[in-house]
Amino acid sequence: MNESVVLRRLRAATLVALVLTTLAITGCNSLFGDGRPRVTIDPDRLRSIEPLKLPDLAKSSQTVEEAREAFVQRPPALHEPGEATERLAMSIEECRALALQYNLDLGVALLNPTITRENITQEEARFESLFFANIRQSIFDQPTDTSLNGSSVKSLNGDVGVRIPLHTGGTITLDVPINRTETDNQFATLNPSYSSDFSASISQPLLRNAGVRTNTHAIRVAIYQSQISEARTKLEVIRVVADVDRVYWRLYAAQRELEVREQEYDLAVAQLQRAQRRVNAGDAAEVEIVRAEAGVAQRVEAIIIAQNAVRDSERLLKRVLNKPGLGMETPTIIELSTQPNPIRYELDPIALANGALDSRMEMLELELLIAQDSSSIDFARNQKLPLVTLDYRYNVNGLGASFSDSFDLLADKNFEDHIVGLSVEVPLGNAAAISRYNQAVYERVQRLATKEQRRAQIVNEVFNALDQLDANWQRVLAAGRSAILEARLLEAEQRQFDLGLRTSTDVLDAQASYANARSAEIRALAEYQIAQVDIAFATGTLLGSAQVRWEPVVPDVPELR
Question: What is the pLDDT of residue 193?
Answer without folding.
Answer: 84
